[in-house]
Design brief:
By secondary structure, this protein is α/β, with parallel strands linked by helices. Helix content is 47%, strand content 10%. This is Lysine--tRNA ligase.
């Protein structure tokens, strides 16, 4: 047994814990289909959001962990529910008026308001694929429309007709009285209007595999349940899909957790084996509200990638999946710096520690080196102090701080410098509030400027931090954090900031003295 497999069998990292639980499913014999199937589902009623990415990223982490502890092949399916009827017009798309006349039609039959694809569903599916491909996920994409209309779902749909009463009994237990009267697991697609109908069944013919119902005008219609003429309500569809594909693992958000017994029960009624589950907590926006793809609140994938790397987003997704996390722009700098801290630690760790390190799971064991000799938070403060508008300005300071660094040898640092300029100008600069120092602070800052001007020792983080620390102590700041808070508020326009000695080493001693003089002269406030 390899050292990594041995470490993985006892690792406390949640992907390995889930992988071990999944492996027990086949401790007696491997799957007859020849592989373990992971699935993620996506509702393309709106643009893909960051929670969708998180679901695929986390599932992939468990998949790769499983491959360490087992020799059974694996496959990941990303399933799009694009046969669903469009129930409302999303608020974040162009030309919304063109969509209104297509309400209740399958998303793959609704025109694309963006004008780039054959349908709105196809557009959103392309968006999803592009996002997933950006991160290098290995997956097979399945369209619900294709799955229904090609006949791949027919066997299970016929079984649903045959066992209609049992599936209905499972569903009716979860419904309110008024809903029970009109509910059916089958949603016919009207042969003339193309709309997905929510109507009660007059008859379900298990032998012929047909349903009979009245449409909105009272006209009686009979349709086969096969061939894409009918789709299943979303809860039965969940369980039926598991049965049809023989899914072994699927994760979903906490908002689905109460439905797990229904999904499992329907899967088993239809002849399948219920998969293993993992329920994660939801992402919240800046106001603590659940992120929604139809309202477009929270941070999108494209927005995150405007200000930080794909790996930093994967790192954020790895952390505490069982805990609800606020997902706003202000979490990005911390995620970037923590990701690189873990990268730097990885090469110093033994195999057990590496198996517990988030970067192993982000990179599936092929972990790169970090060249971030300047933390992202420090780059933001450099951008602020230097008024940087481009990476060339940033590199003029970085080269002095780290003479051996270049954009070519430190590509991650070069990328982060560009992100920092963008992030600073979009989020930090508009909120900066400078103030004038009080008398005690003014005297201390004048002393700091004088000591820096007279300094002829090493220009490094620790030496300069000691100098700044000594000034604050000599001027009676207690606690000393008040001294550093004053420096941040007077010189950087914020209440929190970098390790100030490191900032001086990066920005430059003369430049810092000049910044202090400006702050004292009231040129910043």
């Amino acid at each position: 047994m390899s050292d990594l497999r041995e470490a993985a069998l006892t690792s406390k990292a949640w992907p390995f814990e889930e992988a071990r639980r999944l492996l027990k499913r086949y401790e007696k014999a491997p799957p007859e289909k020849g592989y373990v199937l992971f699935e993620t589902g996506y509702g393309p009623s709106g643009l893909p959001h960051i929670g969708t990415f998180g679901e695929v990223a986390r599932t992939t982490m468990i998949r790769r962990a499983f491959e360490v502890i087992s020799d059974i092949p694996t496959k990941l399916i990303c399933f799009s529910d694009d046969l669903d009827g469009m129930r409302k017009v999303p608020g974040n798309v162009p030309n919304p008026e063109m969509l209104r006349e297509h309400l209740q039609r399958p998303l793959t039959d609704v025109p694309d308001p963006f004008g780039t694809h054959d349908s709105f569903g196809a557009h959103n599916n392309a968006m999803l694929n592009r996002f997933l491909d950006t991160f290098g996920f290995e997956y097979e994409f399945i369209s619900s429309t294709e799955f229904y209309r090609s006949g791949q779902f027919d066997e299970v749909l016929l079984r649903a007709a045959e066992r209609y009463d049992a599936v209905m009994e499972m569903m009716l237990k979860s419904l309110r009285d008024e809903r029970r009267e009109t509910y059916s697991i089958f949603l016919p697609i009207h042969p003339d209007t193309g709309r997905v109908l929510y109507v009660p069944m007059k008859n379900v013919d298990a032998v012929r595999g047909e349903i009979t119902f009245d449409d909105e005008t009272g006209r009686e219609i009979t349709l086969p349940v096969t061939g894409g003429n009918v789709k299943l309500q979303w809860k039965p569809d969940f369980g039926a899909r598991w049965a049809a594909l023989d899914v072994d693992f699927e994760m979903y958000g906490k908002d689905h957790s109460t439905n797990t017994p229904i999904y499992d029960g329907i899967c088993e009624i239809l002849g399948g084996r219920k998969p293993e589950h993992f329920t994660y907590e939801l992402f919240l926006d800046a106001n603590g509200q659940k992120i929604s793809k139809t309202t477009g609140n929270g941070v999108s994938i494209d927005e995150w990638l405007t200000y930080a790397s794909t790996e930093s987003l994967s790192y954020f997704m790895y952390l505490k999946p069982k805990t609800a996390k606020r997902m706003h722009f202000d979490v990005i700098p911390k995620a970037v710096d923590e990701y690189h801290q873990q990268l730097r630690a990885y090469s110093t760790q033994d195999v057990t520690q590496q198996a517990n390190n988030p970067v192993w799971h982000i990179h599936s064991g092929d972990v790169p080196q970090s060249h971030m000799v300047v933390p992202f938070s420090m780059l933001l403060n450099l951008a602020s102090a230097a008024g940087a508008e481009d990476t060339d300005t940033m590199w003029a300071f970085i080269k002095r701080y780290a003479p051996d660094a270049t954009p070519e040898t430190h590509a991650d640092l070069d990328q982060a410098a560009g992100f920092a300029v963008r992030y600073y100008n979009d989020f930090v600069k508009p909120t900066k509030t400078f103030r004038a120092p009080d008398d005690t602070e003014r005297t201390a800052m004048e002393d700091l400027a004088a000591r820096l001007e007279a300094h002829d020792g090493p220009i490094d983080d620790e030496t300069l931090q000691t100098l700044v620390f000594a000034v604050g102590k000599d001027h009676g700041f207690d606690p000393l954090r008040d001294w550093f808070k004053a420096l941040y508020e007077v010189l950087l326009g914020q209440s929190q900031g970098p390790r100030f000695g490191g900032f001086i080493a990066l920005y430059g001693v003369d430049e810092t003295v000049a910044l202090i003089r400006k702050g004292l002269a009231g040129e910043l406030a």
